[in-house]
Design brief:
Length: about 150
């Protein structure tokens, strides 16, 4: 998920809320020493040249969590920072199939766990996520299931 490109030229990223039939979501956790501890995050990463946001989301979900999904919904697209034109594309994936994680050497410490959606949102409210796109995606997923529509992608 790291890149050496200048901030203004960074590629877009995709993040996925993978939700199972019991309304649990796939969360990853890892220790981030530069930020002082263990944090939760959703599967995601940077787009490859020529790829689409959904292709990126599918690839990262399979690699980081070992999950494939047959149903996808866009939750919107948002600027990553004010100093970059890069965007983060948020997705919800359902109808899941589980397999092995395919972690890169920089991801070997990623631990997968399943959380009830509301508990994941509570963890976000408690500051257990390092990056803001994951909590946003979780809240947009909850809103979509409360009858509030997701934004058009």
């Amino acid at each position: 998920m790291t890149t050496s490109t200048p901030s203004s030229a960074r590629p877009d990223a995709s993040i996925t809320v993978a939700r199972d039939e019991q309304d649990r979501v796939a969360l990853l956790s890892a220790h981030f020493p530069d930020h002082g501890g263990e944090y939760l995050f959703l599967p995601g990463g940077r787009m490859e040249p020529g790829g689409t946001p959904q292709q990126c989301a599918r690839r990262e979900l399979k690699e980081e969590a070992g999950i494939t999904a047959s149903s996808w919904r866009s939750l919107g697209s948002y600027a990553i920072t004010l100093s970059s034109t890069a965007r983060v594309h948020l997705f919800e994936a359902t109808s899941l199939a589980l397999g092995p994680q395919q972690l890169t050497p920089s991801e070997v410490d990623y631990k997968l766990s399943w959380w009830p959606l509301e508990e994941a949102i509570d963890a976000a409210s408690a500051g257990r996520f390092l990056l803001p796109a994951g909590p946003l995606a979780l809240m947009l997923t909850r809103n979509a299931h409360l009858g509030r529509s997701a934004p058009d992608a």
